[in-house]
Amino acid sequence: MRRGRRPGKLAGMPRAHVLLVNLGTPEAPTEAAVRAFLDEFLSDPSVVDLPRWIWLPLLRLIVLRRRPERVARQYASIWSAEGSPLEVGTRRIARALAARLGARAAVEPAYRYGRRRVDERLEAALARGRSAVVLPLFPQPARATTGTIAELAEETALRIGARDRLRFAVPACDASGYVEALADRCREAFRASGGSPDRLVVSFHGLPVRQDRREGGRYSEACRRTFAALLRALDWPEERAHIAYQSRFGPGRWLSPATEAVLRDLGRQGAGHVAVVCPGFLTDGLETIEEIGVRGARIHAAAGGGRLTLVPAVADHPRFVEELAHLAEAALDSLASPAVPP
Fold this sequence. Notes:
alpha/beta; Rossmann fold; 4-stranded parallel beta sheet; 11 helices; globular
């Protein structure tokens, strides 16, 4: 008869930490806080891959002088008493996952940029002799998201000689729990808005074409797979669905079509009710609430369209949390085996 594990023990290993990693957020909706956050975020060569001698002067002399004031106003419009929606949503997922994992691991939110950075939280856990699972909240992988998180975590673990106590787990772009949670959020939003929309726009974060090609097209392929899986889960006709890419920043060709252009075109066609779901954003934030829910709705209406329904992020939906729990448990089990690079 197989013996069960004792509570709080993991095959003789110290109690583990699961770090649930999101992008990050400014500490406050102020110009100074936004400037500091954008400086860190946009200085990462994984995010903006232009030559440093070209990009950094542009960033410091133009972008960080013009952009923070406007972005701070946008953040202020969505900030709550609990803080940034992205941070609030990440904490909720962490609490739900902690409840699922119980004594097997401590779960805490961490971020690639800003406060509670993943390298700081990881070093604190590993320095106490704990093992750690880094779980990025990005089902569509790219160097600008999962890649930069993995690189920073790997560097941190190697620096303190604890690589054997680090594991990575990344949600799959078409994992059943993730897709079912997305579909359920869509159905809930459709019911709340009075019925199925005329058109469904599935909007992912944009990426420069050169970056996607450099990585073999894995990001755009993952987006298409999520799109197809969601339509199947909803039994939604392809002719009434549109894949699109939002949040373009910087020069060069980006993945297309742009969400803004799709919403404008649907408005010109007289689409009465459009719903937008953003599968790449697992928590709501500036890019969903303000960019789509406010500016996107305004663009659509100005072009002649009707109402726009923003589908809430999956966040702590039970099926998605269950999917994360399976991933975390598999990574925790593997801690008894030699480490494998992500």
